[in-house]
């Protein structure tokens, strides 16, 4: 996904530079047009037409990149639907993570169906850092089991564990922005979709920053400062999952 973000940023930089240069040239052209010089005036008209044409091409290119990026993001998110991130799981030497996760699901969430053989992949993300517990990425055997675990996340409130969905980079950024604008309690995720609740009680799915902006134009919501307690938010780890390795029994 990083390549797509780089393309978008490069395209935006190109737009900015091109428009800056054309604006500078347009100012110089206006200043150099004598009142009686028809040919130079015609040149200015042609330049204005060219500028509009270039801008329309860049706008079309931006839309195509955005559409392509959305398609790729949807594909990647579908691949991540069976994954959940468990934060706050203590790190131990020679740890058995699949056993630790099944214990949390059994004892903290009350879901007895989660056994070691129902966990396809289970590993930590990021580099080891002394004094910090890296999040554990878990892939369940099927979507129904993952959904059952996710729906019981409120049971972890007050504990050291935090459960979050494995969002893509694009959705993670949009989710954090939505919580900043609408408040933490008014935004959550479900199967990778970002859901927002407005003061009138209506719920809306947020797919893009533009759709978020439309919701917040006439919305009077005081955003809350992030707390250190348990939140059903994404942890910010967006690296691609490793190749699935079935957990040891």
UniProtKB/TrEMBL annotation:
Superkingdom, taxonomy of origin: Eukaryota
Stretch list, region Disordered: 217-249
Biased composition (Basic residues): 240-249
Comp. bias intervals (Polar residues): 217-238
Name of the protein in its database record: (African queen) hypothetical protein
């Amino acid at each position: 996904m990083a390549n797509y973000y780089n393309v978008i940023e490069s395209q935006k930089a190109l737009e900015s530079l091109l428009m800056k240069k054309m604006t500078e040239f347009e100012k110089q052209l206006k200043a150099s047009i004598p009142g009686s010089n028809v040919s130079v005036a015609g040149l200015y008209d042609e330049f204005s037409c060219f500028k509009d044409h270039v801008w329309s091409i860049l706008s079309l290119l931006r839309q195509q990149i955005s559409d392509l990026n959305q398609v790729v993001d949807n594909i990647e998110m579908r691949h991540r639907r069976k994954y959940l991130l468990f934060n706050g799981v203590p790190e131990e030497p020679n740890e058995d993570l699949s056993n630790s996760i099944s214990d949390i699901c059994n004892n903290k969430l009350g879901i007895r169906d989660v056994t070691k053989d129902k966990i396809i992949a289970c590993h930590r993300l990021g580099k080891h850092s002394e004094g910090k517990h890296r999040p554990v990425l878990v892939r369940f055997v099927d979507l129904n089991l993952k959904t059952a675990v996710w729906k019981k996340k409120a049971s972890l409130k007050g504990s050291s564990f935090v459960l979050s969905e494995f969002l893509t980079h694009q959705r993670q950024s949009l989710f954090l922005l939505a919580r900043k604008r609408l408040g933490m309690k008014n935004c959550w995720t479900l199967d990778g979709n970002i859901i927002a609740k407005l003061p009138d009680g209506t719920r809306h799915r947020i797919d893009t920053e533009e759709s978020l902006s439309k919701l917040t134009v006439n919305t009077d919501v005081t955003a809350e400062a992030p707390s250190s307690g348990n939140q059903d938010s994404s942890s910010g780890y967006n690296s691609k999952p490793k190749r699935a390795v079935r957990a040891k029994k």
